[in-house]
Every structure is written in structure tokens, then in C-alpha cells.
What does this fold into?
Amino acid sequence: MTDNPHNRLSFIFACAMITLISVIAAQNVPVFKPYYQAIRNYVSGNINNISTITNISADTDSKNYQNKAPKTSVTYDDAQAQLRQQRVQLASAYNVANSAIEKHAIIEQARASFITSITTLLPYWYGTPWNFNGASKTPQQGHIACGYYVSTVLRDAGLDIERNKLAQQASENIIKSLTDDAHIKRFSDQSIDDFLAVVDEWGAGLYVVGLDFHVGYLWHDGNQMHFIHATGLPPKSALSEPAETSPALTHSRYRVIGKISDDDTLIEKWLLKTAITTKT
It folds into this structure.
């Protein structure tokens, strides 16, 4: 840095800011981490202009995500109706099945239909603006918060859940309301690579993931893992992004994950429209 009053003032400002933001970053608030690193680089002389820091949000906004709802002639309501019809047909077959083998076979069909129902409805919400208090019931209208994105799609896909109450719970309670400990794993201070390696070994399917201050879906399609969530980070909307590059997923120190598509009890509740009690 050249020694002039403007640079000295900027340097003093940067030192003050790094003290504040380092405290926040140490608590692992993901949105501040890029600013923290940029200010450290400025103080150490690795960058020459404090204004570089103002470009962080643009860099964060250039991730490989999908936040545009796909163009389709099938409305959200029509998609729900078609998926509902499939569930009702499977439920009728399940109710008249005469053996455990027949019922198991129908549960397997229902599992595939359950996954299809959720993964069909999620993209309709892509691009719906995020807000901490967002509770929209309709894609592309109003705002949606992360918990409401999870609970609304679960309800619209056919689960008899308490939409508002479930959405307002801590992420771990959301997961525990849906499945039991046999289908839940917890991770503390593990790298994103180690975390995703465990998920990959667990296998393809649909998961709900709870983070430090966030919740969303993890969809392992057998090839790639997609983190689908309503995020307060840029672009501040519902979106799908590769799990390995998701800032929210990557920077969280705590992760709890429930493989909801593996839980036969949950699949049966979905099939028969059995009420699900929210755990608090």
C-alpha cells in the first residue's frame, strides 16, 4: 500500500472491521466469511483496494444454481392433482392387499411415487423470493422461508403435516417429526467432502438436512447430490444447487440429515394420509 492519508484511513477501517467480523465468522455465520477473508487479504497486503470487498456479493451470486422455475403447461395445482391420484390408487391397492409380500411391494411403489411427488413440486418454487418470515402457500407469489419451503412442499406432496407448526421448529425437530433415529445421522465440524461421502455411501434418495440456522432438502438422484432450499444468501430465493458448492451447506458446522425416503413408516403415513405430529 502507498503511504497516503486515504490508505491509512482505509487500513484503520479494515483493522476495526476484521476485529468485528472475525468474531462473527468464528461463530460460523456463512454470509460473513467471504468478507472476513477479503479484509484479511487487504490488511496483509494481498489486495490493494478495500473496494474489492464490495464485489463479494456479486461473486457469491455467480454460483452454479438453478433458481428459475421450469416452463411447463402443467400448473402447480394440476401437478398436485395428478400426483394425488397416483397416491390414492396405491392406497386402494395397499388396503386390499392380502399378504405382507403384497404390501411390501406396494410400499416400494409408493416410495418411488413419494420421491417423485416431492421432486416434481420443488422446482415450481425456484425463484420465489426468500424472506425470514415468508410463508407463501403458492409458488412465485409472496415470499418463502426455508422451513416453510420444506413443510409446504411436504404437505402439497400429500403428507398430513402441521404446515405452520412444523415450519417454525428447529431443523432437527423438523427431521425428528418425519423420521426416527434409525434414519438420522448427525455431523459436527466435518468437511463438506466427508459429509457428502457419507451421504453418497448411504445412497440415492430424498433427505431433509438441518444446518446451524437453516433447513432444506438434499436430493441424491443416484448420480449427483442437489441441495434444494430457500436461502437468505444470494440470490435470496428458493433454488437448487450442487451440494458440494452450496455456501450454506459447506459452511455449516453442524449438519443433521434424515433420509425420509428410506422410512417405511413415513411412506405408509404418506400413502394412507395418517396425521404426523410435530415434535417440539
Remarks:
- The beta strands are 184-188, 205-210, 215-220, 225-230, 238-242, 254-258.
